[in-house]
Amino acid sequence: MLLHSYKITRILPCIAEPEKIRVIAEVSDEIHEIFPYLNAIIKGCIYNHPALTLTIRNEEKLITLHANHVTMTLIEDEKEAEEVLNWLKDLINQTYQKKDQIEPNYSSGDQLKPSDIQKLLPGINCKECGFRSCLAFAFKLVDEKIEIDKCLPLFLGQYQAKRKVLLETLKNAGLKVPSEFLESEKS
Length: 187
Known about the structure:
CATH class of the largest domain: Alpha Beta
Number of strands: 6
Largest sheet: 6 strands, antiparallel
Strand content: 15-25%
CATH architecture of the largest domain: 2-Layer Sandwich
Radius of gyration: 19 Å
Distance between the termini: 59 Å
CATH superfamily of the largest domain: TATA-Binding Protein
Helix content: 25-40%
């Protein structure tokens, strides 16, 4: 067993969706040695070997493992935080037990991040898309739970340069972009 216990030390409002929470939990044991193994078995992780962090996306939640603590965003409540931490503890310990059978993956696995998308959105937090902020919209866009055309201001003339870069970025990341948007940006 690698991870014996955890303790929630802070609960804060989530930046992306203030009606949800961010959670910070200390872990009883250093867990960074398991990160390359988790990176090998979990699709879509972002592993930063020099910083000793591993970010996992679980549905819309972002869970970042550090050597001595865990941070989580977009959590409903403390009960859900406990459930996610228990899942994580089991995952870490099961992976640790089987690590001799897993080829560690030290690659970063970089992928498009909501913050990358947010920089290319109008940034006016108008809520026309149905979300509280451009960052919240960006999270849904990365998860493919909403399409880019729901950001109405993006399609105004003043945001043409940002729009062109954003549509190409989404396409290059393998996210769905309606072909009519790509065609209209070529002219």
